[in-house]
Amino acid sequence: MMGMIALIYGSVQRLGLSRRLRHVLLGLAFGFGASVQMMQSIAVAPGVIVDSRALFIGFAGAFLGPLGATVALMVSLLLRISLVSTAMPALAAGSMAASALMGSLWPVLRRRLGLGHFTGLVLLAVMISLPLVLLAWLPVGRTDSLEVLAAILVLLNLTGALVFGTFLQRERAAAQRERTLLTETQTDPLTGVLNRRSFERRFAEADSLARSRGTALMIVDIDHFKRVNDIHGHEAGDHVLRAMAERLRRAVRPGDSVIRLGGEEFAVLMPDVDAPEAGRAAERLQRMLTMSCRIGDLTRVDVTVSIGATHLPPGRVDLGEASRTADGALYRAKREGRARSIFEACA
């Protein structure tokens, strides 16, 4: 079960999903693992059962945070109530909640204590095992066998934490490496925005939106950028490019895409807009990108942009045709004096 959950963990972490959605899905998986452990429980007294569910719930908190731990806890509680409705539900719920809390606190404690891989997992096992001390205060007759069982469960938690934690950390490290590599292949290293490789894929994603009104494509070109490099140097030019990329990111909507095409040229893809809205957005963007960049302590460079914009009706225009139309509009904007936006509809 541990190996299967670890593989699921690695697979989901590699998906291009938001962090929140990944943690919800993985919380369901960890909750399923805890539920399976409940089906392999041991009765230690009338109305009292023990199992290793705490390991999965605690690790959900440790590796998924409070959101994943909450999801795993809810799945486990629902199954616990449905399976053994008469077996001390309040105590069971409290024990599982304590495991989730201990797991969620573990990353903070590990960072503050500066613990490594092995010692960190030992700490996690100890924290997850703390709810087992409740066995000493259970309203049942205390016996030597009950205390021995508690010690055995702690030892099993320690062993399981080392094995399970090693699996999970290995999968997380591999997923992080793959995400980093993917980001590097899709991101412009100078500005941090998407690079040209991402252009076609982002256009296809925007065009495929259900009930989309179409996609706006804008080509943004920094006016007289060569003059900045010639007068102030290439380092100043790089500073202007980074400032422009940051201003673009803040100026567009969360679902829009900012792409550096090369040199001083950027593209903006805005999904689900109609043609009049695309024209207004280009005018608004042109005004917002007019700025003054500080270079060093004393020098300021005034920056303006020219924008060529077009609108792509859903499913009827390919990216090549749209790019040519936007490039033609950009050429007109520069020919007419720069520092302006021109909108041309695709034929």
Task: Please specify the SSE layout and strand pairing.
Elements (H helix, E strand, L loop, with lengths): L1 H13 L4 H20 L3 E4 L2 E3 L2 H31 L5 H25 L3 H13 L14 H43 L10 H11 L7 E8 L2 H8 L1 H18 L5 E6 L2 E7 L3 H14 L2 E5 L3 E5 L1 E8 L6 H17 L5 E3 L4
Describe this structure in words.
- It is a multi-pass membrane protein.
- With 347 residues, the chain is α+β, with helices and mostly antiparallel strands.
- The chain has 2 domains: 2-186, Orthogonal Bundle (Arp2/3 complex 21 kDa subunit ARPC3), CATH 1.10.1760; 197-343, Alpha-Beta Plaits (2-Layer Sandwich), CATH 3.30.70.
- It has 11 helices and 9 strands.
- It has a 5-stranded mixed beta sheet with strand order 4-5-3-8-9. It has a two-stranded antiparallel sheet with strand order 1-2. A two-stranded antiparallel sheet has the order 6-7.
- α1 (2-14) runs antiparallel to α2 and α3 crosses α6.
- The longest helix is centred in the middle third of the chain and has 43 residues, at 144-186.
Question: Can you give me a brief rundown of this structure?
Answer:
By secondary structure, this protein is α+β, with helices and mostly antiparallel strands. The chain has eleven helices and nine strands.
What name does the CATH topology of the largest domain carry? Answer: Arp2/3 complex 21 kDa subunit ARPC3
Helix content: 55-70%
Element-by-element helix/strand order: HHEEHHHHHEHHEEHEEEHE
**Strand count, sense and closure of the main sheet?**
5 strands, mixed
Our Rg estimate from Cα atoms comes to 29 Å
- Give the amount of beta strand, in percent: 5-15%
Q: Unreliable segments (pLDDT under 50, ≥5 consecutive)?
A: none
3D shape: elongated
Number of beta strands: 9
Question: What is the CA-CA span between the terminal residues?
Answer: 58 Å
Q: How do the strands line up in the largest sheet?
A: 4-5-3-8-9
Structural class estimated from helices and strands: alpha+beta
Mean pLDDT: 82
How many helices? Answer: 11
Number of domains: 2
CATH architecture of the largest domain: Orthogonal Bundle
Question: What is the CATH domain class of the largest domain?
Answer: Mainly Alpha
